[in-house]
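Protocol step 6 of 9: fold each sequence in the batch and record its C-alpha cells directly after the sequence line. For illustration, a two-sequence batch is reproduced in full.

Sequence one:
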Amino acid sequence: MLSDSGAEAGEVTHSTKRDSLSWGGSAILELLPAGHVVKTPTSNPWDPFEEKINRFNMRLEARIYDKIGQNPRVPQIIRWHAESDTLTMEFLENGKLREYVRENHASIISELRL
C-alpha cells in the first residue's frame, strides 16, 4: 500500500529540500533555494541507536560552531533547529576542504595548508 508520500509500506524515503550535495553515514547535505546548506542527520529505522548517535553528533557539531563563533574560515550557522537536529549553514562555494586542498595542493602555501 502506498503512503501519502508515494512510498510502499515499510519503505524508507528521504524528502529532499533541493540539490543533494553529499550523503554520508551520519548526515545529508542539501542546497536550499536561498543558497544555504541544510545538514540533516541520517535516519535509520532498522537501527534506532545509530540514528540517536547521528542526532547526538549533530547537536555536538552545533555546540562546537556556537563555541567557535564568527570566524572567516568556518561556515557560519544560519539556523539550528533543535527539534529535528538540523543545521542550516552558509554555502561555501569551494566545496569540501579536503577535496579543495587535494585539487589545489600545488597552489596552496604550506603554512596555509597546515
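Sequence two, same batch, same settings:
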Amino acid sequence: MNKFTDITCYIHNVSPIKKSGTTKYFNYVIQTKSDVRNGVCFAVDKRETLDSLAQQHSPVKIHKYSLSNKFGRKDIVINKNTLITPTTLDFKYQDLDDVTSIASLSQVTAGQLVKIKGHVAHLSPTRTVLLDAGPVKKQEAFINDPSGYIKLVLWGSHADSVSEGSTHLFDKVRVKLAHQEKYLNTPKNEDECKISSVANFTESLQPVENISTVKDLTGKILGVTNLNKYHCCCSCNKNVTIKGNLAFCNNCSMTMKLNCCKLQCTLKLYIQETSNPHNRVRVSVYNDVFSKVLGICNLLAASTDEEIIENILDLELVKVSYDAQSNKVIDIDQVKI
C-alpha cells in the first residue's frame, strides 16, 4: 500500500535523460492545486509518457511514489512501480513561465526557479565573500510589489546590476528557505538568470519593513576569544569523533579517514571602532571568513593557536562587515595604513 496520498497534478518541464554513475534518471516539475514541486524519475521508460502529458497539459494522478529530502525539500520520486493515470481536476494548468507575484511565493516550493517583477526598495553594498570555489561578489536587496516584499541575494555578475528605486524583471531566480523564511537567490549558473529593466508598477507597493541589519566597522582588534578548531564529516559536515587516524560521524554513521575530514575553525573578535573609540563590539568569525583571516595573516589552518592569535592581534586596522542581530562577521579586510 502506498504510504502517501495520491497526487493530482499537471506535469511540467520534463528534462532529457541524465546519468549519474550507472544510474539513469530525468527531472520534472509538478503543479498541484496549492504549490509547485520538483520531481525525479528513475524509470526512464516513463519519460516519453510524462513528456507527452506535459506537452498536452493533461491532468494526472500519481500513485505509489516516494519522497526524497536530499536537497532539503520533499521531491516527488517516480520509479517502475509508480502508476500515472489520467484524471480530472478543479484547477487550471498554469504556465510556469508566467510572472509570479511575491505573495504567491508562499505556495512555491524551495528550489524552484521563478520569474518575478520587483521594485528594488533597498540595496546593500556589494561585498566579496570567500567560498570553496574562491572569492565571489554578493549583494543583498529587498524587492517589493503590490502584494508583498522579499529579500533577494545577487551573486557574481548579477551584483551591481540593479539600482535602488528601479524596477526589474528577474527571470529565473531561485526560491530559497532559511530559518523558516523564504528569500530569492540568483542561481549558481549565472547565465540561467536574466535581469532586465521594466516599467514601474502603477499600483501602490507593499512597504518593506525588514531592512538589512548588516553594519560596517573600521577599527583595531583588541582581543581574541573562543578560538575553536574541529573536524567535520566529509558527507554531512557535522562534528566527528576522532580515534587515531579514523573519524566517526554520529549524525550519518559514516566512518572515514581523518585526512578526508574538513578542518573547521571559529573564533570571536573584540574590536574598537576607530572613529568612535567608545564603540566596542564582539563579533563571531565562522569557517569561510576564518579562512580569509588566515589568508590576511599569511597562515594555514594547521597553524598553532598561539600563532593565529598573535598574528591577528598584530593587524593594525581592519574593516569588518557584520550582522548587527547575530554579530556574525560577513566579511573582513585589512586596512593598509
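Proceed to step 7 once all outputs are recorded. Observation for sequence two: The chain has three helices and 24 strands.
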